[in-house]
Design goal:
This protein is α/β, with parallel strands linked by helices. The chain has one domain: P-loop containing nucleotide triphosphate hydrolases (Rossmann fold), CATH 3.40.50. About 40% of the residues lie in helices and about 20% in strands. A five-stranded parallel β-sheet has the order 6-7-8-3-9, sandwiched between helices. A four-stranded antiparallel β-sheet has the order 2-1-4-5. Helix 5 packs across helix 6. The chain starts with a strand and ends with a strand.
Amino acid sequence: MNIVFDNVTTVCLDELSLELELKGLKIILDDESDRPRGILRALITLDDILRGNIYVDGVDLITFLEKEPVVRNFGYIFDEGIMLSNLTLFENIMLPFSKLENRVDKVELKKELDKWLEVFELELDMDKRPASYRNSQLKLLGWIRTIMLRPKVLLIENPFYLLNKRERGVIIRVINQIREEYPILIVSIDDDFIDQVSAEITTLS
């Protein structure tokens, strides 16, 4: 997937021009600003484009996203585990699927969920609410939810944030497992993370 930022201004970006060829694993670095995070947020339209335009494979972003929902194109994994407190964990997993046109088989979805819980070494009661678990566990569950949506590209914000040493090891293993299946664009300023992965690094000047 080819992405071009053409003089884009948002709340985090100031006339940014950048071309990204999304294949394999890519990390965006910029130690002095919030621009890398702004790039991810602009791609999923969380931040409005005030000036300029973004093109995906030659098509402007809004037109591109009209063909399929955002979650089918860009799977965003936030730096914090974002779950709605009034829903159970399973209801949180199901929420984005309920927005899709095609119905999902809950039984098959539950089987896939169980598989990913094992991969991420999580033992959770999915009938409980988020308050029952640590933020790091909810963050890993957020990874699972996004991967299960099977987006075209994974956008990942600060992978190591909130995680302990064991959980960081899990994340490195998972990234190496899925990187052949998904193009992955990561924003991170964590030297420990960057040292543990083999990736193409783009530094914003």
